[in-house]
Structure formats: structure tokens, C-alpha cells
């Protein structure tokens, strides 16, 4: 039995002993036993309480004199009471009073002991719960220790398993070290041979060879300069650079910029916009790392703008006025009306979008492509002064502007596509050098089904296009005629 149960048992045993003693004492004092009691318990119990109240016993005081039954069958007893003055001096009454006081004191003590026992019992229960928890924790710690040791052992075993394959590798290193030694020896031998060859060639012959290489490089560079212009033979691609913006827009680089300057300009939508976004490079353009924003003084029309020598050239909205805007100063440097040029969807390309006036640049300079009533709505090509926007010279073609999908200039020749949709191809070309035209058949892949901007960049030798919200590049192949010193 646990300690709290032992304490509780002691209390209960004490209570039983005291109760037994009280019953025996009362039996002695009142002089009652089972042989003398003939009435029911209902008569005995009030009788006992009467004795306790008067503090006397029937033997010394109250006595039953006679008994009979009434007509209803009830028991009638005659009781003789003792003299009252004798009860107060009765020794046994004092003894009974003292015993009652002791019983009351013992009852109070038992109550206090019971309260203490209950409190101790609750404390022991709490301690027992805590001990069980500590025992469980110790058991868990023991299990964890075994598990941890097992895990460490397994980790060590796995590391050993990983190291075992290194043994043959180390053996191979020994072999490799021998090979390296052999290689070093062969290199020393080759160095000796090369030194001998150099001595045989001689310093004068080497210097002459070096000069011949430099001369060849110079001639190749001169040849490349003569290859700057050529005739369009093929268009390949496209290469998708980015997906952004609306279906219509323009993006471009400066063909006259230095090799280190790769800024990109981005103009979304064909109308109702004045915001130009600048990126320091193609990589920044792809990642969206915008470097600067320009708020133009006028809204633009169409998507056929061009950046040339640090300035933006665009068509002012609802007019045939051309604007030259400097990115460096943020100011309009020049503006001029393009005489007789149709605008605001009078002579656009096939897709519309206020694309009446197309500004472009090539190896020769700055150009404007548009249509006039005087030329019956057919394409007019004008070469512009890049500073004043003055028309230097114009050529009238016979190709209807509204039937053209897009157009671009390469080496002074205008190339026109027959559509802006799937199946488009370069269908027509006009040479400003000879003032002649020809029909061509140069297909290209319109991957995203709707082209709203197509411009040639002479530095990159590529076509920049806005293809249904995709910014793409096309590579071009040109046929070159190499000029000699005898050519005039």
C-alpha cells in the first residue's frame, strides 16, 4: 500500500475504536442490553437521548414502574423520576460530562487529522504524478541515448563506406604522378626543340612575318568597310528578346552609338502616350531594370519612330509634323511639317494604327516614308537632314502605301512587305541610287502573327520588330559587291 493509503487507514481505524468505545460506555452508563429491551427501536432511541439530556441513568434515576396497553393497543408505561437535586451532584453524571467533552475533543482532533490527511494525500498524489513523469523522462533519455549512439555509429559507418572507394583513387594518383613526371620531361624536351627552331628562323624572319600579319589585318578591315552596303538576300529568325506591353509598340537602339553604348528605348502603344523608357543594355531591358524615363512634350502617332545619333525622331500626334527630341538635354531640337504627307490614318500601313509616316535610318542617313495625294496615295521616300529635318531629296514610287505591311531601308534601298500578318514576305524594293524598283520574294517567319513595327539597324545588321507584344530580332543576309581601287 502506498504512503497516503496507510495514513488514511490509520485515521479510519482510530475512528472505529472511538466509536466502539463510546457505544460500550453508553451501554454501561444507561444499563441497557438486548435482553431487557422489549420495545421497538423507536422507543429505545428517544429514551437514550432523554438520558443524555438529563445526564442520569435509568438504574440510578428514572425507573419503569408498570406497563399496560390502551384500547388502541399502544404500550403505556409508568416512569418514576428521581429527585432533581441529586442529579447535579451525581459522580457518574460528572464522569459522563467529562467523557462527552473528551469525545468532542477527540472528534475535533479527528477532523483536523482528517483534513491534514487529505492535504497530505493530495500532495502525495501530486508527487506520485511527478515521479512517474521523471521516470518516463529518464526512460526517454535512456532510449534517446541509445538511439543517438546508434545514429552516430550509422553516420560513421556511412562515412567509412564513402571513403572506401577513395582507396583505389589514391592508388590511381600514384600512377598519375608517374605520368605527370613523364609529361614534364616531354615538355622540357619540346621546349628545347622549339628553342632550336626559333634560333633557326632568326629574329629578322619573325619580325617580317609579324608585319605581314598586321598588313593582312588592315586589308581585311578595309574590305569590311567596303561591305557596309549590299542587297538584301535573306531574313532569318526571329529571336524573341522579351514579351511585354500591348499588341502595338516600338523598341530600338541607336545605330550610330559606340560599341560600349547599348542603350535600348521602349515606346508602348501607337497613340495617346508620351512616356519613353530607357534601359542601359539589352540585358537590363530583358530583366526590366529601367534606367531612366522621358516624358515627351507631345504625344506620338504610330509606332514608326527612330533613335539616331542620340536623338529621338517621331511623328507628332494628329499632324504631319516631325519632332527631333534630344535625350541628353530633354528638349525639342527641331520640328518640321512634312509637306503634303497624309496623317491620322489617311495613308497608314495595312494594320492601321496612325502609321502614316514611317521614320527610319540606314547606312546612308535619316529617311521618311509616307504617301501624298499628289502621288495618288503611293509611297514617297524622302531623305532628311538630321539636324534641321529639311527634305534633301524625294522619290515617288508606284507602290500603294495602304497595301504595304511594313517597310525598312538598307543601303538606300526601301524594302516593302506585302502584309503584317502570317505569310508576309518582302515583296517590293526601290533603289534611291538608281531610282528603279523590282518585285522580290524574300519570306520571313511572322511567328506571333501581327507585326506593327519593323526597322533596320545598320550597326547590328538586324531588323527590330514588335510582333504582337513580343520584341524580336531578325538577322539579315546581304549580297555584297566588293569595290576595287579601279572602280569609280
TrEMBL record:
Superkingdom classification of source: Eukaryota
Record keywords: Coiled coil, Disulfide bond, Glycoprotein, Secreted, Signal, Synapse
Signal peptide: none
Pfam families given in the database record: Noelin-1, OLF
GO CC terms of this entry: extracellular space; synapse
Keyword Cytoplasm applies: no
Disulfide bonds, paired cysteine numbers: 229-411
Residue runs in coiled coils: 89-151, 180-226
InterPro entries, alphabetized: Noelin_dom (IPR022082), Olfac-like_dom (IPR003112), Olfactomedin-like_domain (IPR050605), Quino_amine_DH_bsu (IPR011044)
Keyword check for Glycoprotein: yes
Ranges where the Olfactomedin-like domain occurs: 228-480
GO annotation (BP), single: signal transduction
Subcellular location: Secreted; Synapse
Protein name, per record: NOE3 protein
Organism from which the protein derives: Psilopogon haemacephalus
Amino acid at each position: 500500500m502506498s504512503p497516503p493509503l496507510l495514513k488514511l487507514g490509520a485515521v479510519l481505524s482510530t475512528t472505529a475504536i472511538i466509536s466502539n468505545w463510546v457505544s460500550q460506555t453508553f451501554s454501561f452508563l444507561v444499563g441497557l442490553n438486548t435482553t431487557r429491551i422489549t420495545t421497538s427501536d423507536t422507543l429505545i432511541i428517544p429514551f437514550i437521548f432523554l438520558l443524555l439530556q438529563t445526564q442520569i441513568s435509568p438504574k440510578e434515576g428514572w425507573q419503569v414502574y408498570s406497563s399496560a396497553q390502551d384500547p388502541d393497543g399502544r404500550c403505556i408505561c409508568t416512569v418514576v423520576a428521581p429527585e432533581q437535586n441529586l442529579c447535579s451532584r451525581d459522580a457518574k453524571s460528572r464522569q459522563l460530562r467529562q467523557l462527552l467533552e473528551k469525545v468532542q475533543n477527540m472528534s475535533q482532533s479527528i477532523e483536523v487529522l482528517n483534513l491534514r490527511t487529505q492535504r497530505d494525500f493530495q500532495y502525495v498524489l501530486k508527487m506520485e504524478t511527478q515521479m512517474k513523469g521523471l521516470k518516463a523522462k529518464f526512460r526517454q533519455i535512456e532510449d534517446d541515448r541509445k538511439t543517438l549512439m546508434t545514429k552516430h555509429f550509422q553516420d560513421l559507418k556511412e562515412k567509412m563506406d564513402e571513403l572506401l572507394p577513395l582507396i583505389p583513387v589514391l592508388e590511381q594518383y600514384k600512377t598519375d604522378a608517374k605520368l605527370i613526371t613523364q609529361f614534364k620531361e616531354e615538355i622540357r624536351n619540346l621546349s628545347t626543340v622549339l628553342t632550336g627552331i626559333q634560333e633557326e628562323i632568326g629574329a629578322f624572319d619573325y619580325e617580317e612575318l609579324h608585319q605581314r600579319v598586321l598588313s593582312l589585318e588592315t586589308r581585311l578591315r578595309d574590305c569590311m568597310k567596303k561591305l557596309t552596303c549590299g542587297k538584301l538576300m535573306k531574313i532569318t529568325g526571329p529571336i524573341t528578346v522579351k514579351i511585354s506591353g500591348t499588341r502595338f509598340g516600338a523598341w530600338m537602339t541607336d545605330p550610330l552609338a559606340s560599341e560600349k553604348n547599348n542603350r535600348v528605348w521602349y515606346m508602348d502603344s501607337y497613340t495617346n502616350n508620351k512616356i519613353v523608357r530607357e534601359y542601359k543594355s539589352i540585358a537590363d531591358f530583358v530583366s526590366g531594370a529601367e534606367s531612366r524615363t522621358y516624358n515627351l512634350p507631345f504625344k506620338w502617332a504610330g509606332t514608326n519612330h527612330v533613335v539616331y545619333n542620340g536623338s529621338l525622331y517621331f511623328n507628332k500626334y494628329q499632324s504631319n509634323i516631325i519632332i527631333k527630341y534630344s535625350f541628353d538635354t530633354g528638349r525639342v531640337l527641331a520640328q518640321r511639317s512634312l509637306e503634303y504627307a497624309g496623317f491620322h490614318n489617311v495613308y497608314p500601313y495595312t494594320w492601321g494604327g496612325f502609321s502614316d509616316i514611317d521614320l527610319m535610318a540606314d547606312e546612308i542617313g535619316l529617311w521618311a516614308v509616307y504617301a501624298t495625294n499628289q502621288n495618288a496615295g503611293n509611297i514617297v521616300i524622302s531623305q532628311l537632314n538630321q539636324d534641321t529635318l529639311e527634305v534633301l531629296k524625294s522619290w515617288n514610287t508606284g507602290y500603294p502605301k495602304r497595301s504595304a505591311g511594313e517597310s525598312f531601308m538598307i543601303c538606300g534601298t526601301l524594302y516593302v512587305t506585302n502584309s503584317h500578318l502570317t505569310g508576309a514576305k518582302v515583296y517590293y524594293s526601290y533603289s534611291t541610287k538608281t531610282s528603279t524598283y523590282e518585285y522580290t520574294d524574300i519570306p520571313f517567319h511572322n511567328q506571333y502573327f501581327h507585326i506593327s513595327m519593323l526597322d533596320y539597324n545598320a550597326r547590328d545588321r538586324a531588323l527590330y520588330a514588335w510582333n504582337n507584344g513580343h520584341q524580336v530580332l531578325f538577322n539579315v543576309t546581304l549580297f555584297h559587291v566588293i569595290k576595287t581601287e579601279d572602280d569609280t
